[in-house]
Amino acid sequence: MICACSVSVEAEIGEGTNFYHRGIGCAIHARAVIGKDCKIFQGVTIGSKWSNGIYSGGAPYIGNNVMIGAGAVILGDISVGDNSIIGANAVVIHNVPENSFAVGVPAVIKKL
């Protein structure tokens, strides 16, 4: 059960993906794709991006077995590779390769 969140029914969410702490405060864009067996903590935003007043329209693709820490923000037409970790409160606006971690604002990406 998830509550106090905005998860579009059009978003693709893979089998085995869990929203921890009931997904409180999460916002998931209609065009978002989230793979299998992901772990998503509270307050996560997976959405589109505005830049210089222009709406990108694209939403993130999240691979399989990705952990997204509390308060993380993943924006735009980007991808997060399989087995990656997004740290708490990270702001991710660039692709994250598989087996990597992203932390900070804006996120710095390193291989695991």
UniProtKB/TrEMBL annotation:
Gene3D superfamilies: Hexapeptide repeat proteins
MF terms in GO: serine O-acetyltransferase activity
Domain of life from the UniProt record: Bacteria
Family note: Belongs to the transferase hexapeptide repeat family.
GO biological process: cysteine biosynthetic process from serine
Presence of keyword Acyltransferase: yes
Cellular component, GO annotation: cytoplasm
Matching SUPFAM superfamilies: Trimeric LpxA-like enzymes
Record keyword Repeat present: yes
Protein name (record): Serine acetyltransferase
PANTHER family assigned to the protein according to its UniProt record, in alphabetical order: SERINE ACETYLTRANSFERASE
